[in-house]
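Try this one yourself first.
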């Protein structure tokens, strides 16, 4: 590298030279920069090497027509569904699989993935009851009443815990569709006691229930090009893999209930009062939330339990699931929000009991509107007509509707923490409309593909809601405590949901943090945002896998990120880069470098000492000839000498001058006398490579920043050095000053110029003549005498 210090001093008074320390080269490579290669699945006609769907991509589809009857007295749900299943795969199917997720609430039908247990210090009667052997049936789970074809003929089926296989009387061939019917019922669990996503919550003070109806109907499993049937058991943790389709759902509920659900209600004029319908029509064009069902109306409804019934009809197109809620306790408000990217006019709405009124009335619907608008900016335009938030003391997501928490004290007051928690969960759950409800990843296998990507986009959305929002997931420094844990308490992000110990950090925080580091520190916002939108656009309403995400991010950005996926997603190493040593050098201004002369004596041409098998065979091969006249360029000294065409006088010598340099004159000495060089040695103690980001603070109080990409570690993953030349004195060096790499130990990131941690040396400083001979011979060509000779 040629180095012109005059130019560097005139440019911000700083010069930078990067160096690699090649200590222990034999043990250098830990494969952190090798390509993922066979770790990723082989591209094919369904999924390309670019990360895009291939020309042969396909996915199956299921349309549902469902009727449901909610028996509030018995807390029972009775349903009947007709499913039209489309086999768009290239395969013939002899059976199909459905999910019976509600069986997870049963003591005898659940998947029963057990955990290790130890003797507690104390126990209670409920725990003892649960531990009874043999296990008694608690009466929960799906009761299948009838499974038939479209004509009512029984179909043979087998239930395996939370999965049901239907054996088809006739093979379902490529391009064909199957229509079949299922009737079922189940006892609705008290989700506040039994846990789970769906069920009822009882409000003892007014004797009312709030129902969240989720995973409530037998649902088709995904049959895909990469997995076949995704029929892994539902254990309560790994969420869902579902197919897209159209839904028509009718819910028969008590007449004083208010119902919210996936999609649009088609008969508000039949189920709402004239006043409520008028308010809804007004809300459709409002820029601020309008109460459709008022607080006073909700309080009044709580006191009278009607025995009359009403049927609410909903429709939803191109969704992967359907969920709904029902209660007489609901206050309901709404407003219109327009998505600029596609001019989609969406009804943003919220349903909440009086216990959450002071928070939800003020923030919920506005947070819904803000979320779908912001996610639309970073991914794809929100395509659905509705987005809803329901306060139900928990957090869970479904297409166009989600369930959140956020209740006030009895007097209506709330803490700042409760408010921020409520806003955060609304943003998170509404955001799930994009991941995985539209960009439809397999949650049963890869939790991070929905939770991690959604948590990252949630962080971007929280920042746009309030720049001071206390986000707990996304900023690099917030993952440090998790990354510090012993290795036996960590799993790679690329782990199945059921196998993860630290589920929150692993599935939510670490992938979200990794994406934020990519955006802010490694790729930059412009490249990252373009690639992220490309992924969302490519895989909207499709079934992406991890490789599709990794490949798309690289394909759309031009960045080789295999080192990052390998370290952050497939590994458990933390980031811990340390400043190991700083060497300070000052110029020796009196050094006078001499122009060097080198003498060469011509010897015979350099040749391989051993004729290998190829040379012997080529020499004997009469088909190999050399045409001197045809290729004049090969008539060089070597060729002529080797064939006796030119003799060499071994007594003749040749002298070549190299690198003529001149000493500094007095004027230059004054200019350069304040130059100081600093060699900073870094050690990678954690194992995970990252960019090297430095903040220099000088004695005059000024600061300077420098960043080297992670590629600085490519030739040595353990140690690297960087040398800087400054014309003013350095006071301190701070590594990763903004804590943007998730470095787990910042105590070794600081160096102060107090003499305790630095060594000193001198370096020669001279002026290089720019018009001297080019090294190696004139015009950049190799001198044949030099090439054929040896240095004397």
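Now uncover the answer:
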């Amino acid at each position: 590298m040629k180095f012109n210090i005059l130019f560097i001093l005139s440019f911000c008074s700083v010069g930078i030279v990067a160096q690699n320390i090649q200590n222990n080269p034999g043990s250098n490579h830990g494969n952190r920069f090798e390509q993922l290669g066979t770790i990723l699945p082989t591209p094919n006609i369904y999924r390309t090497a670019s990360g895009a769907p291939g020309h042969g991509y396909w996915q199956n589809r299921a349309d549902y027509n469902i009727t449901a009857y909610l028996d509030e007295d018995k807390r029972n749900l009775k349903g009947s569904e007709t499913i039209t299943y489309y086999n768009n795969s290239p395969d013939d199917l002899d059976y199909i699989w459905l999910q019976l997720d509600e069986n997870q609430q049963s003591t005898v039908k659940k998947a029963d993935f057990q955990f290790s247990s130890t003797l507690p210090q104390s126990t209670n009667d409920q725990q003892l009851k649960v531990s009874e052997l043999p296990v008694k049936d608690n009466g929960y789970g799906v009761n299948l009443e009838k499974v038939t074809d479209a004509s009512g003929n029984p179909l043979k089926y087998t239930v395996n815990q939370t999965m049901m296989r239907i054996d088809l009387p006739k093979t379902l061939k490529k391009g064909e569709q199957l229509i079949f019917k299922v009737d079922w019922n189940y006892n609705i669990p008290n989700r506040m006691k039994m846990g789970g996503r769906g069920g009822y919550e009882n409000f003892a003070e007014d004797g009312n229930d709030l129902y969240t109806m989720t995973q409530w109907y037998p649902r088709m499993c995904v049959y895909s090009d990469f997995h076949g049937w995704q029929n892994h058991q539902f254990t309560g943790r790994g969420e869902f893999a579902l197919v897209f389709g159209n839904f028509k759902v009718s819910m028969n509920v008590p007449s004083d209930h208010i119902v919210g659900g996936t999609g649009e209600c088609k008969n508000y004029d039949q189920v709402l009062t004239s006043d409520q319908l008028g308010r809804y029509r007004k809300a459709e064009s409002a820029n601020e939330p309008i109460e459709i069902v008022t607080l006073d109306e909700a309080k009044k409804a709580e006191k009278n339990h009607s025995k009359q019934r009403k049927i609410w009809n909903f429709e939803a197109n191109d969704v992967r699931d359907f969920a709904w809620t029902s209660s007489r306790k609901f206050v309901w408000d709404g407003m219109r929000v327009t998505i600029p990217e596609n001019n989609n006019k969406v009804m943003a709405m919220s349903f909440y009991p009086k216990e959450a009124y002071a928070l939800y009335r003020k923030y919920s619907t506005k947070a819904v509107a803000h979320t779908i608008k912001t996610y639309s900016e970073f991914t794809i335009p929100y395509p659905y007509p509705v987005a809803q938030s329901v306060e139900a003391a928990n957090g869970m997501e479904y297409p166009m509707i989600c369930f959140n928490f956020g209740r006030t004290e009895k007097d209506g007051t709330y803490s700042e923490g409760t408010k921020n928690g409520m806003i955060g969960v609304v943003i998170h759950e509404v955001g799930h409309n994009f991941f995985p409800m539209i960009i439809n990843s397999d949650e049963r296998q890869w939790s991070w593909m929905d939770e991690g990507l959604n948590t990252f986009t949630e962080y971007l959305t929280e920042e746009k809601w309030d720049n001071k929002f206390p986000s707990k997931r996304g900023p690099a420094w917030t993952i440090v405590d998790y990354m510090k844990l012993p290795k036996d308490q960590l799993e790679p992000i690329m782990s199945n949901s059921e196998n993860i110990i630290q589920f929150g950090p692993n599935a939510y925080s670490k992938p979200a943090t990794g994406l934020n580091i990519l955006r802010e520190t490694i790729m930059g916002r412009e490249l990252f945002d373009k690639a992220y939108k490309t992924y969302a656009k490519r895989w909207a309403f499709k079934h992406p896998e991890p490789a599709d995400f990794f490949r798309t991010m690289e394909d759309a950005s031009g960045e080789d990120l295999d080192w990052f996926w390998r370290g952050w997603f497939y590994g458990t190493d933390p980031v811990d880069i340390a400043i190991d040593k700083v060497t300070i050098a000052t110029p020796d201004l009196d050094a006078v470098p001499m122009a060097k002369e080198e003498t060469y004596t011509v010897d015979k041409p350099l040749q391989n000492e051993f004729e290998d098998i190829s040379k012997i065979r080529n020499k004997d091969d009469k088909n190999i000839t050399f045409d001197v006249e045809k290729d004049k360029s090969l008539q060089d000294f070597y060729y002529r000498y080797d064939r006796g065409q030119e003799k060499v006088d071994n007594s003749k010598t040749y002298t070549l001058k190299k690198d003529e340099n001149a000493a500094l004159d007095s004027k230059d000495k004054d200019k350069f006398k304040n130059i100081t060089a600093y060699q900073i040695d870094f050690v990678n103690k954690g194992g995970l490579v990252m960019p090297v980001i430095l903040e220099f603070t000088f004695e005059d109080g000024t600061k300077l920043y420098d960043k080297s990409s992670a590629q600085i570690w490519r030739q040595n993953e353990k140690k690297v050095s960087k040398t800087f030349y400054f014309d003013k004195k350095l006071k301190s060096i701070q590594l990763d000053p903004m804590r943007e790499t998730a470095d787990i130990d910042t105590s070794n990131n600081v160096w102060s110029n107090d003499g305790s941690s630095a060594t000193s040396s001198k370096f020669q400083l001279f002026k290089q003549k720019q018009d001297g001979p080019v090294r190696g011979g004139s015009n950049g060509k190799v001198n044949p005498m030099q090439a054929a000779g040896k240095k004397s």
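Discussion: The radius of gyration is 36 Å. Residues 1-27, 631-635, 771-792 have pLDDT under 50 and may be disordered.
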